[in-house]
């Protein structure tokens, strides 16, 4: 009888914790030996992942290494993956990223983790519907220098593709191969048609973007619901391709839901 009461009380406490606890996830790949990082390993770490490719994901000295395949773009060239995370009106994340010492910058591409809101609009052909947004990071080679920029799909963006708001990192000089960059992202949903959401990216502690934003205009689509992992070349057009395989390394992913 006492045991039954204890079980019931414990269950009630757990149910209560479940309803108030905020989602949190940290992955550092430290307990893996060198070798393939398969879809099932990714699922055991992330909970869910879509679009994984075993042949492009390795553990290398306790880092996750993604291969960008030669002569390919978008999903063919790397990983376009997503993890379902609990709906939240504010999330932040951190990760470390390093381009291999022989990395071919080519024109550029998507790099690392990001957040998806509502319908999670991406791709340059999405008509503006106010029903979704995404925050991702790109690297870009303009022929003179190479930098990161924010790549943002949001309500009211100027063109068919995402906005970068003219924000670049570093502000002068180029990204360096073989160097670790610490990326911090923060997204807060807006309400109604008010630009009271927020977008922030910091790189090695320096602000790349930090401003209020109108993500969505439909409150039923305002919440953050996907963690994206997009690492690939492109853009579209052959000038985004490379004729060599290249590697990008990741470490210390941490994702935190700040509010429901
Ligand atoms: C969101 O994440 C889930 C789980 O990984 C995935 O099945 C779904 O395709 C993702 N949605 C988008 C738009 O990325
Ligand atoms: C908002 O999204 C919901 C769910 O998809 C949809 O039913 C509704 O029509 C949308 N509202 C507007 C104003 O587009
Ligand atoms: C990841 O975090 C660990 C523990 O804080 C730290 O020792 C390591 O240097 C970090 N990795 C990178 C690439 O900064």
UniProtKB/TrEMBL annotation:
Signal peptide segment: 1-20
Q: Which residues form the Polysaccharide lyase domain?
A: 90-253
Spell out the InterPro entries in the cross-references.
Answer: Polysacc_lyase_14
Q: Which domain of life is it from?
A: Eukaryota
**Per its UniProt record, what Pfam families does this chain match?**
Polysacc_lyase_14 (PF21294)
The UniProt keywords, alphabetically, are:
Signal
**Protein name listed in UniProt:** Polysaccharide lyase 14 domain-containing protein
